[in-house]
Write a structure and sequence with these properties.
Blueprint lengths: L5 E7 L4 E4 L8 H18 L2 E6 L5 E6 L9 H14 L1 H14 L8
Antiparallel strand pairs: 1-2, 1-3, 3-4
Helix pairs in contact: 1-2
InterPro entries: DUF6145
Pfam families: DUF6145 (PF19642)
Length: 111
């Protein structure tokens, strides 16, 4: 079992960079592209840094942070945007959790 959360991907409005954990290179290109678009548009919209990470049970978490004193970061907007993404991308997020649970945690596929 992993001791810490495992980062799937991250995007930073400060460095204007996107990162995909190389452990997830086996994901289909369309999924990797969708994750990139999701993360980059999020940080372009509200600012800060968005990290998608799996907890020890395989749940996919949205982690948002910002530099101290960043007056342009929209904290309320980030919470609303996460709720909207969890609704609109529910199928993608559930599929990613299933992928992680099966291939990283060794759980059985549900029937």
């Amino acid at each position: 079992m992993y001791q810490e959360n495992i980062i799937l991907c991250a995007s930073s409005a400060y460095e204007q960079k996107y990162y995909l954990n190389e452990d997830f290179n086996s994901l289909p290109e369309s999924i990797k592209e969708e994750l990139k678009i999701l993360c980059v548009l999020f940080t372009e919209d509200v600012g800060g840094i968005l990290t998608l990470e799996f907890d020890e049970e395989g749940n996919l978490l949205f982690n948002v942070s910002s530099d101290e004193g960043d007056l342009l970061f929209d904290e309320i907007g980030s919470v609303l945007k996460i709720k909207e993404l969890q609704r609109s991308k529910e199928e993608l997020l559930e599929s990613l959790e299933l992928f992680y649970k099966v291939f990283f945690l060794g759980e059985e596929m549900p029937e």
